[in-house]
Amino acid sequence: MSRVELVHWNPRGWQRSGFASSPSGWFRRVNNFGDLLGPVIAKRLVADRLGPARAARNARLVSVGSILRMASDGDTVWGTGINGKSVGLPLPATRLDVRAVRGPRTRQYLVDQGFDAPEIYGDPGLLVGRLWQRSEFLEASSRRDVLVVPNLNDLPLFDSEDPRLLDPTSSLKSCLIQIASSDLVIGSSLHAIVLAESFGIPARLIASAHEPEFKYRDYFEGSGRRDVEIAGDAEDALRMGGGAALTWDAEPLLNAFPYDLWAVR
Fold first, then answer.
1. 114-134, pLDDT tens digit by residue?
2. Tens of pLDDT, residues 15-65
3. Got the DSSP string for 143-207?
4. What's the chain's Rg over C-alpha atoms?
5. Burial of 227 by CB count in 10 Å (0-12 exposed, 13-18 middle, 19+ buried)?
6. At what angle do helices 190-198 and 214-222 cross, to 10 degrees?
7. Average pLDDT of 161-188?
8. Which of 14, 18, 41, 159 is the most buried (most CB within 10 A)?
9. What would the DSSP string read from start to end of 73-131?
């Protein structure tokens, strides 16, 4: 039977057990919420357009996240990006079916390596607020004025006792609920900013201590914005408040989705 693999990043990572009697920890999935969005969005798009569907052929779809280097020969690329740590490295793949990328910086990276890449931009996470209503995730118990969401690698730098803090390895549903239930989202998590903006919630990016600016600028430029001010820390972000409202047109990214990888049952 044919299968479409929805490629996403979720390796096993070393985790402390939390029990004094078992200090060595264990390996479990990282479960960084932004990296779990790709399969959820793809499945929703297919269900909404095709209803019950099956794979038309064996294929791999590379979408949400800075996971372009996970692509293999023959893969379909839709809305993914390259991480700034990898821009000096060649792609392992030599043949890709590129339908859309996160932003113009990722496209230029591909073009420089000889790939064809259309000027169709957008992080698919921006479709969440279109595929689901914000009201579906609102919870009175989760309402807050400000939500702080660090990048996974920045989490140890934030105060774990801060009631505004959201651990990005919380369940995807919990992250959606807490983002949707906040009035302002700040932090160095790219997909916290993306999801907030998809719901029409003001957001402000805080500079990451571990991630180059590349992927953030790629996202902003791919959604039609240059010279976005990035806060230095949480206090700076609160002073600056949310950025300008998003005016990005979702239709080109939606129209570029590879429905042809599936067939109606």
1. 999 999 999 999 999 999 999
2. 544 434 444 445 678 899 999 999 999 999 999 999 999 999 999 999 999
3. -EEEEE---GGGGGGS-TT-TTB--TTS-HHHHHHHHHTEEEEEES-HHHHHHHHHTT--EEEBP
4. 18
5. exposed
6. 20
7. 97
8. 41
9. TTEEEEEE---GGGTTS--S-S-EEEEEESSHHHHHHHHHTT----S-B--GGGGHHHH
Provide the residue type at 92 as one letter.
Answer: P
The Cα 26–Cα 192 span in angstroms is 27
| Residue 97 to residue 41: CA distance in whole angstroms | 19
Residue 169, φ and ψ in degrees, nearest 5: -95, 10
- pLDDT tens sequence across 70-84: 999 999 999 999 999
What is the pTM for the complete model shown?
Answer: 0.93
Retrieve residue 42's tokens. 């793809």
d(CA 135, CA 122): 23
